[in-house]
Amino acid sequence: MKITVKFILIILFSFSVLSCSSQKKEDFKAREIYKSKDLLITQISENSFIHTSFKQTNDFGNVPCNGLIVKNNNETIVF
After folding, report:
1. C-alpha 8 chain-centroid distance
2. Cα separation of 55 and 67, whole Å?
3. Distance from C-alpha of 79 to C-alpha of 33, rounded to nearest angstrom
4. Tens of pLDDT, residue by residue, the chain (79 residues)
5. 23: which residues sit within 8 A by CB, 6+ positions away?
6. Fewer C-beta within 10 Å: the chain N or C terminus?
């Protein structure tokens, strides 16, 4: 009798573990949205973008300056 109860518990536990798998989402691949001589905008997720502007300096030449753009519904924040 104890073996039957243990067996049923093992089977129930196995089914619950196997049925609780995570949902697979397709990986988002970064892509360039906009590119010019002075500005590059790259989408890194559905609502997040990296903006890269370039500043010409005397010591280091053309230096990239990065920032983040985050969009949520009708609001957008630029860091």
Report:
1. 41
2. 13
3. 18
4. 567 877 787 877 777 766 666 666 677 788 999 999 889 999 999 899 999 999 889 999 889 999 999 999 899 999 8
5. none
6. N
How far is residue 79's CA from residue 65's CA, in Å, rounded to a whole number?
11
49: number of Cβ within 10 Å: 19
Residue listed under structure tokens 């049925």: 19
Q: pTM, whole model, 2 decimals? A: 0.59
Label the pairing between strands 31-35 and 61-72: unpaired
State the Cα–Cα distance between residues 9 and 63, nearest whole angstrom. Answer: 63
Q: What are phi and psi of 9, to 5 degrees?
A: -65, -40
User: Quick one: tokens of 10?
Assistant: 């093992």
- Of the candidates 41, 70, 68, 66, the residue with the CA atom closest to the CA atom of residue 54: 66
Run of H or E residues at 15 = helix 2-19
